[in-house]
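Escalation from tier 1.

The customer reports that the assembly of two entities below gives different structure tokens on two consecutive runs. Tier 1 could not reproduce it. I'm attaching the input and our single run for tier 2 to review.
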Amino acid sequence: MGIVQIIAVITILLLLVKPLGTYLYYAFSNEPNRSDRIFGGIEKGIFKLGGLKELGGMSWKKYAISFLSTNIVLVAFGYLILRLQGGLPLNPNGIGELEQSLTFNTVISFITNTNLQHYSGETGLSYFSQMAVITMLMFTSAASGLSVAVAFVRGITGGKTLGNFFQDFVKSHTRIFLPLALLVTLILVALQVPQTLQPTLEVSTLEGQSQQIAIGPVASLESIKHLGTNGGGFFGANSAHPFENPSPLTNVIEMLSMWMLPASLPYMYGLFAKNKRQGWGIFSAMMILFVLLLSLNFYAESKGNPAIHAMGIDVSQGSMEGKEVRFGIAQSSLFTTVTTAATTGSVNNMHDTQTPLGQITPLALMMLNNVFGGKGVGLINMLMYAILAVFLCGLMVGRTPEFLGRKIEAREMKLIAIAILIHPLIILAPTALSFLTDLGQGSISNPGYHGLTQVLYEYASSAANNGSGFEGLADNNTFWNMMTGLVMLLGRYISMIAMLAVAGSLLRKQPVPETIGTFRTDNGLFTGILIGTVLIIGALTFLPVIVLGPIAEHLTLR
Amino acid sequence: MKNTNEEITEQKPVSKGAYLFSVVRLSAILIILCGIVYPLASTALAQVLMPFQANGSLLENREGKVIGSELIGQNFRNPALFYGRVSSIEYKAEASGSNNYGPSNPDMLKRTSDFIAQWKIDNPDVPVHELPIDLVTNSGSGLDPHISPAAARVQIPRISGLTGVPSDTLKNLVKEHTEGRDLGLFGEERVNVLKLNMALLELSAK
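Tier 1 run:
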């Protein structure tokens, strides 16, 4: 039954890819289309109020500066509100200001679409902060990522310009995130996710004890949390909390919400490239890697923890520590894989408690960071690997490599090398650094090899802008707030700016006509080479540390 | 090298100040739209259309007093009632979460073996190999309202002995309160412990 559920969800996803990808294409191709009638007027109003008179194409530098300056303004606003929340309205539970390093970490975490949470929503944030800072940054960070991805796609598929950041940014809100979020919110409320401004409830239980139940505007955050691949929960327990995710049905809706947009982007890319097979090639590479890693997690979690088996109880349900009964193994395992593939980072079961082999799946997906990936970034990263694959093939046969009819030369490869190398660097170097200091080591809550995985996971999650955690790690202190804050910043902006530069550079090149000798990038062979490139680079970089963490724990567990 | 795109933007120069002012204004509009209008509009719609769900799916007892939410588990300590899952936060729902014990964590292994030892004393009629793992383990949220049907069934001999309700009646009660998979496909079969215990108390009161 578990496998049937998983296949059903994947089938629904496959059915959504084409219509959504087409819609995304029309939203961003800027050709006149039917959706203009609904949204065109609102967008004109927003541009007018914003004082944006002209929306001409931008150079890559202008695009990057617009993207960065908007992000800086939003993050400054968020910082102020969190520091002042005690005196602001909509604070029925009387919550005070957030500590300085924690505020720094939190605003960076949300503007970078990471949503690593070192605070606990119930006790750390007022309802106003949950709405005006957390929910708002969930929209704007997702829209920023999507805009950059669209600009990158325009650049490599021979568009006239990269487009206009402000136009893409506003359209992402009006045509995609706001309408979808409202729809998903209402569906979630119908399925029992709360949406209220009342303070924490106090009830007298069936046994007559007092129970306080934290509540709030949960559904409106929950929907954009997944649609924007953000992942930061209203409550500390995230999507394992019954108010955030009350039933298997809401679980399916949340998984599809975070998965459908990243999965549709390759199709949109195919439309921009005027060759749908290009898009399906990229999509297939992602899906094959996804299914491989999902299988590993599902197998390991179903098999369970041998140390518990030895105690002689009925373990037919699999590894249930840190999981919810309503989800069981199938819905938990699929959620773990989707949330780390799509770099959402919401969790419906605690990744810290998973079996050692099961833990490899979320770790590997964050280390690869290109299997579907977060809003836009996953597609950019996968295309980056596609260009690398073309380059490697070119080296082997001794031809100048081309991608979509444009020569790949030294400048592009240098930028891509930076983007590919920065990711392992900001995971492995801080992990090593943390083990060298007492501050880092002191936060580890699980002894032995598992402790290494805890630290590694925290940085992999920060670098991939995922935001899930091995939550046992005591990470709310100045050391971890600063370290992960920096890793999140570097992980988000360096590769995005480098890839905008690649797009700008490819845009300037004369197209090379396709000949019989051109290496094709829209067939099964290329998809295979692409998967190979991703796995070889990923394994060369990260295998040693995976052996030291989860594999060593697996071998010693009995 | 001159970039064609830079030429486009250079045709109509915008001063730096005006550009920055636009960035700030656009950000302000989106802050209001996404951070204030959207959540408040969602709240208004939810409260008008679906007040029961929007306010936490609260359950009332016979006297009309709210005794909890059907979604949030409670800490049952009376051995004559069905127990829920292990919760390191004892179902204190002002917060949520668990200890996040890794699979090799000695504290977790000790907690589990202690639980099993105590279980043997309290439930001498049920062999340990029938004790389902969900009853022994900590849920992710610490607030899991459900247990598996098997975890309810293994508690029947104990509850029947303490309350005098015949075990066949209890078996039927568990069966009635077993919720199937969503749409017959998604998730797992489960029993809501709070609802089951409410029904059990009504039964024993008769």
